[in-house]
Amino acid sequence: MRKMMQYRLYPTEAQTAALDDQLGEACRLYNAALQERREAYQRGGLSLHYYDQANQLKDIRAAGNLGLANFSASQDVLRRIDKTFKAFLRRVKAGASKPGYPRFKSRRRFDSYTFPSWGDGCRLTAVGRLYLQGVGHLQVTWHRPLEGQVKTVTVKRQAGTWFVCFSIAYEGEALPGTEARVGIDVGLTDFATLSTGETIPNPRYYRKAQGTLRIAQRRVARRKRGGRNRRKAVVLLQKAHAHVQNQRADFHHKTSRTLVDTYGVIAVEDLHVKGLASGMLAKSVHDAGWSAFFNKLAAKAEAAGRLLVKVNPRGTSQTCLCGAPVPKTLSQRWHECAACGLSAARDHVSAQLILGLGLSLLGLT
Ligand SMILES: [Zn+2]
């Protein structure tokens, strides 16, 4: 399995200029390679391959036409184009009405480049700095130890701040087994409700973040287009977004860690089921956040040898544990069953139904 570990870089002024330059050169190579592909394609659907382009790299570099210092990183840029273009050709082949031609990237938007193998143009120095070819020896904040086998190294710029991302191969360590089982209902009012009745509230930063983002957004809107002050406001907005994303990711990591540590079988809703019931439709607003949470949950469950099962959420908000239909509108937060007399919080009932469906899918009932 792979995991990403990200650390903040503290480049000097000269190193920042060098990083910007390397990124700019990667972007230039990307656009030039894309240009060549477009021309070949427009000349009659002839498509270039990765090696057609990679074979030119040596000459281009020998002629001094490329400032991207590491050869393998240059190859990686071409592989990126190759991937993008193949996806485009697949869409064309599938008859997509708008296949979405791969686009040129602006220097501002192009925000990362990758060293595809550790030790080739990138390594740790004896004093704990990160050496990057073409940039130098960078200071890094090692907020947690870099463990495991490093595969690739990606350098990225986010809201004017530089980071290094290590992709690391690791083997999951199975946790001791547990009989405990849980169903999870993600909700609109609380972040999630468990079949045990426990609720996980939305973190308090959530509301605060929305206010902060709105203010930053308004500041951008007030500034004149193309002006330097607008650029500054945009960076502040990007920073605010990044901050929220970090907080959310942190919350997702901690919550999924607790769940995986506690339960041996975890049942969740499958958010990808088409034709969701009315209750789920309103939830789709939050899908992105929940998918990110479920992905982290799935990765941790797999690494720990836990069972994660996804169930079709249809009906889980409209049925009773006894099987009788109990229709509820979105605003009805309480479940009252006329058939069996069950009276409970709506999401608690849903979570129990999700667990039941999960267990029957696994044949554990
Ligand atoms: Zn009932």
Keywords:
alpha+beta, Nucleotidyltransferase, domain 5, 2 domains, five-stranded mixed sheet, 9 helices, 43% helix, elongated, binds zinc ion
Structure, described:
The protein has 365 residues and is α+β, with helices and mostly antiparallel strands. It has 2 domains: 2-169, no CATH class; 181-202 and 240-362, Nucleotidyltransferase, domain 5 (2-Layer Sandwich), CATH 3.30.420. The protein is built from 9 helices and 14 strands. It has helices at residues 13-42, 50-54, 57-62, 71-93, 205-222, 228-262, 278-283, 287-304, 346-362, and strands at 2-10, 112-115, 122-124, 130-132, 136-141, 149-158, 161-169, 181-186, 192-194, 199-200, 265-269, 307-311, 334-336, 343-345. A 7-stranded antiparallel β-sheet has the order 2-6-7-1-5-4-3. A 5-stranded mixed β-sheet has the order 10-9-8-11-12. Helix 1 packs parallel to helix 4. The chain starts with a strand and ends with a helix. The model is unreliable at 274-278 and 280-285 (pLDDT under 50). The protein binds zinc ion. Zinc ion is lined by residues 320-322, 324, 337, 339-340, 342.
Number of domains: 2
Order of helices and strands: EHHHHEEEEEEEEEHHEHHEEEH
Q: N- to C-terminal separation?
A: 31 Å
Small-molecule binders here are: zinc ion
User: What oligomeric assembly is this protein in?
Assistant: single chain
Query: Could you tell me the radius of gyration in angstroms?
Result: 25 Å
Count of runs of 4 or more consecutive helical residues: 9
**Which regions contain 5 or more consecutive residues with pLDDT less than 50?**
274-278, 280-285
Helix content: 40-55%
The spatial strand order of the largest sheet comes to: 2-6-7-1-5-4-3
Give average pLDDT, whole number. Answer: 88
The structure class reads alpha+beta
Total beta strands: 14
Shape assignment: elongated
Beta-strand percentage? 15-25%
Biggest sheet statistics = 7 strands, antiparallel
